[in-house]
Design goal:
Blueprint lengths: L13 H7 L1 H12 L6 H14 L5 H34 L7 H14 L1 H7 L5 H11 L4 H26 L3 H6 L1 H31 L1
Length: 209
């Protein structure tokens, strides 16, 4: 299968994968996950597509490298957020669309809802790239961060590598639903948070009564 036969959305990263192979998968996902605006998710899908359509890449290696890269990238972001703090992120955050107001809102959100947000952030464009930075700024404990981050990375890699690998000629159809996957993830997080808030208020009212 040639580059021209790839789904249109994947053709931009195809030459990079052709040239660098697994290095492209690991490098681009790592960069994306600590805030650099590169097509990490698209690279994962394209690499899995190559593995399924041609066998040029090994799908197990693609999945393993993508998972490790995702965890490393977010942990680099976490370290930057924790040790650089607000001043560093506010200085350079504008390059990845992190304004001070957005940082403050996201930090409050992380402080309230913690680990479950880290796991779900994988499927939310923008938050996927910034969740390590924000978790670090929020003073989240590292063991908690890495646990939920690994869970989210495993789910994210599993979903999109499956789409690329098994999608075949129907991959364009799958990719059309990428937005819907994101929406479902956001709705699920919001619903879970709403449930927890309701449960907390209910407990308070019960204890008062």
């Amino acid at each position: 299968m040639t580059t021209q036969e790839l789904p249109a959305v994947l053709t931009a990263v195809a030459p990079i994968i052709n040239h660098y192979g697994y290095w492209a998968v690991g490098g681009l996902i790592t960069l994306e996950d600590f805030g650099v605006p590169v097509p990490g998710e698209t690279t994962l899908i394209a690499a899995a597509f190559f593995a399924g359509a041609e066998g040029r890449l090994n799908i197990f290696l693609v999945v393993l490298i993508a998972f490790i890269a995702a965890v490393i990238g977010d942990n680099i972001g976490f370290a930057i957020g924790e040790y650089g703090g607000h001043p560093l992120v506010e200085k350079f955050g504008r390059y990845i669309f992190l304004t001070p107001a957005r940082i403050n809102r996201a930090t409050d959100f992380f402080n309230k809802h913690g680990g479950k947000v880290v796991a779900a952030a994988r499927f939310i464009e923008g938050l996927r790239q910034a969740n390590g930075l924000i978790a670090g700024i929020s003073d989240m404990r590292w063991p908690k961060f890495i646990t939920f981050n690994a869970i989210g990375a495993a789910l994210w890699v599993g979903v999109w590598s499956s789409v690329g690998y098994f999608g075949g000629s129907h991959i364009n159809t799958f990719l059309r639903y990428q937005l819907y996957v994101t929406i479902v993830a956001v709705v699920a997080v919001v619903a879970f948070i709403a449930y927890k808030i309701f449960e907390k208020k209910k407990k308070k009212s019960t204890s008062r009564g």
